[in-house]
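Exercise 7. Given the components listed, write out the predicted structure of the assembled complex. Treat all entries as one system.
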Amino acid sequence: MTRRLIIVLLLLAGAVCSAQTPLYRGRTMVEYNFPFNGHYFWDTPDFRPGRVFFNGDIYEGVMLNVNAHTGDLLARESLFTAPVVVPGELVPWFELDGVRYVNLRLCGVQDAPEGFFQVLRDQRETVYHQRIKFFAREPGDHNGPRGIGYDDPHYRENIIAYFHLRDNYYAVRRGTFKQIHPSRRRASRLQPVPEAFASAEAPLEQRTSTGEPSIRVPGARPDLPPEWFSTGEISSGKRAILEAIEQETLIANYRNKTYEIGRTGSSKGPVTVSGTVRDVATGEELPTVLVTDSSGRIYTYTDDRGAYSLKLPLGENLLSFRETTKEDMDIHVIVRGEGSLDIVMREKVTALKSAYVTANSMAEHRRAGMGLETINSNIVSHIPSAFGEGDVIKAVLTLPGVKSVGEASSGFNVRGGSSDQNLILFNGGTIYNPSHLFGVFSAFNNEILDGVELYKSSIPVQYGGRISSVLDITTRDGSTDRVRGSLGIGILTSHATIEGPIGKGGKTTFVLGGRTTYSDWLLKRLPANSGYAGGNASFSDVNIGVTHRFDERNSLKLTGYWSRDDFSFRGDTTFRYSNLDVALKWRHKLSGNGTLDVSTGFDRYSNILDRGYKTDVTGAWSLATDIRQGFLRAGVKQRLGTHTLSWGGDAVFYALNPGTISPTDSSLVVPRALPPEMALEPAIYLGDQWQPQDSPFSLDYGLRLSSFLAFAPMKFYGGPELRVSGKYSPLANLSIKAGFNTMNQYIHLISNTSSISPMDTWRLSGADILPQKGWQAASGIYWTVFGNELDISIEGYWKQMDNYLDYKSGAVLSMNEHLADDLVRTRGKSYGVELMLKKLSGRLTGWVSYTWSRAMLQEMGDRGPDTINGGAWYNAPYDKPHDVKLVGNYKFTHRYSLSFNLDYSTGRPVTVPVGQYYYGNALRLMYSDRNAYRIPDYFRLDLAFNIEPGHYLKAFTHMSATIGCYNVTGRHNAYSVFYTTGGGTGVKGYLLSVFATQVPYLSLNLKF
Amino acid sequence: MRQSTKCILFAVLLLLSGCIYPFHADIESESIDKIVVSGDIIIGGTTRITLGYVYPLSTLPSDMRGNYPMGAVTIENDSGGRWEGTYSFNGIYSFDTTEAPAAGRYRLHILLKDGREYSTPWTGVKQAPVITNFRYKGGSQGVAIYLSLDGADSLWNFRWDYTESWEYHADFVPELMYVPGLPPEDQQNPSKIYREPFPSEIKTTCWNSYSTIEPGLASAEGQSDNVLKDICIHSMPSSDRRISVRYSMLLTVRGLSSEALSWHRHMNALSNESGSLFSPTPSEMQGNVRCISDETQTALGYVDVVCCVSKRIYVPGSFYRRPYDPEAFLYFPEPDEDGRYYFEQYYFSGDAPVRGEPTLRGVEWAPKRCTDCTVLGGSTTAPEWWNIRDWK
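Answer.
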């Protein structure tokens, strides 16, 4: 049945995705059945890799050639497939061997002949060259430089079929497109013009902020006939082509020109070059773009406003711009003095969304911090997951050092830390339960994500409040040019997103996204004997973001997030929980190289458990807990020479409802509420990134002073948190790092389950619950080899913590006024080594990692025989010593790729029965020491086949599809084990497997 | 249902049901030298304390009977009173604590023959709660039994156990009995294979009983006046044979300390509530029995000091709706092609004659459980207290 289902899904997806003409679906190439010497191609019969702008998108590395007889562009998908004719009406231009060919008619030059023109350049003007091989039939010897004939001994009598070669040249003179006849000598001097449409006649000066002309960008405007730009109304399709060409032209200019920066003689030593990096399509400033010189030792990152600044020596240099989601950009510059260089970058070609890059190649060699992993939505959407829903948390779990207690479990564990020791920020707001459907899906809509950063160590000073990690998730701004949207349909969930400008000018944009599930609808249709017919499970979430740019220096962003989960298994207990986050962020670009960010917001996480009794309405009750918090943050980041300073402060005000019981209906339950908890957590920080140029050393260091004031009863905690990390790079592609950081945590998850559950409660530190304190020391070696294609890293860490809360046996954690009496303080230690190998480019991309680690706990104190495991160290519930992860993507063509994900780990520790006894005539089990045994090892392989959208410029919608299978091997991975004593046959052991078989899925995404 | 919908439902079932498979942990075979102490010290009644051992998981339940810790088991109070336990059977030590004073503190002391000595801490007596209402409610759906308790001054936690007893009848009264073991030549002779039953062989009225293994636990913490009102402690559908004629429940209620309640709840959870996604991770709980001769030794069990109160209710059979039983039918035996009957086979496969003309094919047969109520586990002897005059 599964196979049949997959076939159906494949056919369906194929039908959907082949509705539009792809690049390789043209008619086959013309064959000529008469003999002739030579060939009819433009230059050579060999197909060579080139790039083509087809139907609105750019295809890289396409095997191309040109039939000079028909004027057709030919493309070949592989050596084993026949060349096909690419529909010329969809190709404004293509590049082959570094030369650009344009379809002038498609660009609006109606008096130009049909076909493609090679763009050449004389000293002064752009010349268009068209090579034509006419077909003719006549007697004679037609072999030679202008003829491609046939060696017929009777050529004088016989009619010979042959091609006659003709080279035509054109240029724009006095506003008209004219054929020119250059002398043979001049024609031989004509050079290809990679920077298509470039013209020295219309230079565009870009100026620095002070108004000084700094660089010359000759060719920011295509050298097309004037009527192209001036004649009447431009159709939307034509405008789109024009915009695309303009963008392409800009990019091409950057790539192939040499820019002069500054004035000669204005400086003698290294000078400051600054500028702004923007997205070519939206104009949005791009933060965290890595800017390096040719040596790799002079580098910087763009700040939150996309600004960069670095000191370069005078003379020629190569500036490289790298950002995970953008195409790499290398610009030749000649630095003559101080000046600026603003550039634009564009998205990676959509057909190649397969690149799994967690960090830019070489990026590890530029920053002193370590343990940072970045993920973008492309990565998330291509990692196979259950039911095909792009899942941030599941993507994070593919990284080394990140583990979970099992499938369908909420939360994650980073380097031996518990799930509550991760600070999960969503646009600055705190998320306390990052999952939907009890852990099957994450709480975040992948469609609106901008970036995801996970700090495993070297946590920046602006973050605090958790002792293990920080997961910072941000959503993107809305599109500035037009309204766009997307729809996604999966087996269990659907999502929709719409974004665009508000008003004219693109200063205000919005993005709105939502998700929901229809599992509830399906559950109601399940057979009664399934056991779930009466159950329900549903969730929904909504994201909204509005951004307004007042001017170049000020912007305001309002974000909101709301989610709801509602489910009940069997019986009469219903769980509900909800997240609400609202944040307002003002960003101000300071004079000089600085940015001020001020944000404030409100977060709420509420949890309700409705317990009804079918036979006893008097005992029905509803238990509610919630966390409300308001926050205010202000931070400045400013570059001063080789230092980048960060300073600021933040404050979080907590108001917790630890538990309120309310009677429902005619219940006799008396309303009861635990005393609310309130506290203030203010902190100030100061940090510095010291990156001396031309030095193999760099240093990040900072101090965060955190404090915590609990009200009722008043209790104060606080202390300094040290963050230090350093780097030594003996080679440009080799770095050695070490770091140390300390953290404090004042809010705690109280749980006796393995993962975050709806029954868990959160408590603040107070008189009887001490803050958790932890420190981590880490070091690593990073090596980039094979032309920056392969990153090899090894990181080791040692981590310790105090006051982590475990529970006593038989503890009552809910509605317990004396909760601290049921808890035990433990100290923890974890250590490990993480090996990782990343391949960042080529057809096959991805990473493989192996982690060996341990995580142990020990009760602090002596409770006699009740002390956990007699006071010895015991395994933490998430201790998995061996962990292997393989994530990759292999692209067959630009549209088709295969993603795979392999996960192996040691089984997590569990407490199992080791004995049995009778107690009151009932057979009971005696359990082992806590976490003394392990469930079976975990292994899972997922596969997904991705079909990217067709590349139609004029198409209103673009559809993509993913067909995949979760747990391909169908392994019965254990979530937990349990034992029963019934039936009089002794003790029986069972394992619960959440996804115990292959889970095929299909997800369709439509963008417009 | 359309095929596509079935596919989706199949996928959903994969998600939600998960799968449960047998699992055998590679548990080290270690000797567990630990004793188990169960039972409460009951003031004003008979105390029964049971001693047992913890056995490896591989031990069959049947092999766990017969070997019990032996020694001197004593109840002491802080006034110097001592009650020596009398060993009866299966590890049970009985104490006559009927006259034990309700004031003061008690403890259990155990001295095993191997020299190990155990004791519980001095514990005050938990008074019995007041049973304010103990009733049943019947209807077309069946019968539910409700309990209301009042913890009086300082009692918030309750435990109850009950014993069910019921009378029930066989479906048919047999008028004939089959005589097994006849020689083949007589097995086709109706006058030899059938006879009238003796009165002692007619087992159409039986009584059965069952005592709960899992105690009922409840707490009135958070409720007004530390009372529990109309807790449904038991229910039976209208098709339940137990309410077919007459039914009785003897309820015994006692108070519990918070520690004892926590211990019992934890033990119940370990046995019944593990394995689901949100189940608490299991952990062993020692109880309040300590080895005072060797601190490295531990024991399992929680011995509380309580007073008990009992009450009985009766339920008539008017709420019984006999369900359709496809196997409770009468039939005439069929001969084979040669006209021979195989009554011996019917008999030994669990059927019995019921009524009819004692000819080869004139007698109706039925499953034996329809004519003999002891097959269903009951006894033909009524309990001594089974007195119809007590019915309400």
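Discussion: Helices of chain A lie at 2-17, 184-189, 226-230, 236-256, 377-382, 392-396, 519-523. The first strand of chain A starts at residue 48 and ends at 54.
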